[in-house]
Specification:
alpha+beta; 4-stranded antiparallel sheet; cell membrane; Cation_antiport_E; Na+/H+ antiporter subunit E; transmembrane
Length: about 220
């Protein structure tokens, strides 16, 4: 599990060898808790073994830390949750109509270029989109901040563009709720994404923030 860490003094890009020297207490504690739950008994032996397993796993398979320089805005978090609940109810109703209908849905796989360059925002956006029925995130490219989604019931090109706009709107709400002032300004104006001190360097393969969406439509029978 990756650690969410506040940005501090500038550091060089993280390498796998450098990550091995960083203790990840949250990841170790989570693995230890899972270990104790698997054994279904809280004993000193299980707790110690869980901690040892957590240390071994985080040492053998280190993940890059997620740099976070923003701050929590409670009112915008509430707006984010509210929009998510509305999307959840609306999409559930549409999927239910398809389940009881006779029409075979026409599905599609699309590519969406996100505006942010943060693993944290990429993950949150992907999770919020994937939790809504009718859309599944099948791949996420952290090097270019691109999401690939499978969409249910795509009748025309406008539906594809609407879904892409929806994903970007979710990302914008996430950044507004948790981002720094510089990140919010970048997401609103489409300007360059601010660099977080110590973050890994990425190769940006797109010049603007509205990259082309590619869709591959196929006919599928709804089961």
């Amino acid at each position: 599990m990756s650690e969410v860490r506040m940005a501090t003094a500038p550091r060089g890009p993280e390498t796998p060898r450098r990550r091995r020297r960083v203790l990840q207490p949250r990841a170790v504690a989570t693995i230890a808790l899972a270990w104790v739950l698997l054994w279904d008994r809280v004993t000193w032996g299980n707790v110690v073994n869980g901690v040892l397993v957590g240390l071994l796993v985080t040492y053998a398979f280190p993940l890059p830390s997620i740099e976070f320089s923003g701050r929590l805005r409670p009112h915008r978090v509430l707006l984010l949750v509210g929009h998510f609940l509305v999307d959840l109810v609306g999409a559930s109703w549409q999927v239910m109509r398809l389940a009881f209908g006779r029409r075979s849905p026409r599905n599609a796989v699309i590519e969406v270029q996100l505006r942010s360059r943060s693993d944290f925002y990429l993950t949150l956006t992907a999770e919020l989109v994937a939790l809504v029925p009718g859309s599944v995130v099948i791949d996420a490219r952290r090097s270019t901040s691109v999401l690939y989604l499978h969409l249910l019931d795509v009748e025309h090109e406008g539906r594809i563009e609407a879904q892409r706009a929806h994903v970007l709107a979710v990302e914008r709400r996430v950044v507004r709720a948790l981002g720094s002032r510089e990140e919010i300004a970048a997401i609103e104006t489409g300007g360059p994404w601010p660099t977080v001190p110590g973050a890994e360097t990425r190769t940006d393969t797109t010049a603007d923030t509205t990259a082309d969406t590619t869709a591959h439509c196929d006919e599928e029978e709804h089961s």
